Amino acid sequence: MARINIVTPESANAEQKALYGAIHAKLGIVPNFLKVFANSPAALKAFLGLHGIAGDGSLDAQTRERIALALAQQNSCEYCLSAHAAIGRKAGLNGAEIEANRAGTSQDAKAAVAVKFARSLVANMGEITTAELIEMRDAGYSESDIVEVITHVGMNILTNMLGKAGRVDIDFPKVELKRAA
Q: Rounded distance, CA 156 to CA 149, Å?
């Protein structure tokens, strides 16, 4: 059960209802984590703005989902893992690729570098090495791409925190976290 209130469409105020209408028009649903964000319309608008800007960048949808899957597993957020497994499948990721992403890599050599870089950013609180930056550039990522990976990492940390702190009820097909052996 969620530990932070989920703003239902029935309990939503006019501003929240307007935001829900825009979200529903774009996604066809209003996911529970956005209903938690809606407790603060300002926070929800900030997240939607960042998400929209990040989605318009140079990273393709599959790479964005690969990063989200890797970080959801790394940060132990079952809500985000479940959500991004479903979104990743819609973006064209197959089961083997999703498993590779959860393990911190990819079947695509270039994407594997981005996933590894994203995980290192989290593990090292941003203190990545020059060698990691060179590896990104050598894989074909531009400075813009590198900044976008960092942006996606920040956005995913935010959603992982909200999912975990709020124990948001999973409204996607549930994917169990892999536990460390």
A: 10
Same domain, yes or no: 80 and 138 = yes
Question: Do 30 and 76 reside in the same domain of the chain?
Answer: no
Please give the tally of structural domains in the chain: 2
The secondary structure of 60-85 as a DSSP string is: -HHHHHHHHHHHHHHTT-HHHHHHHH
CATH (domain of 106):
1.20.1290.10
Structure confidence by residue, pLDDT tens digits, 113-132 = 999 999 999 999 999 999 99
User: Quick one: pLDDT band at residue 181, thresholds 50, 70, 90?
Assistant: low
Count other Cβ atoms within 10 Å, centred on residue 77: 26
Residue 128 belongs to domain spanning: 61-166
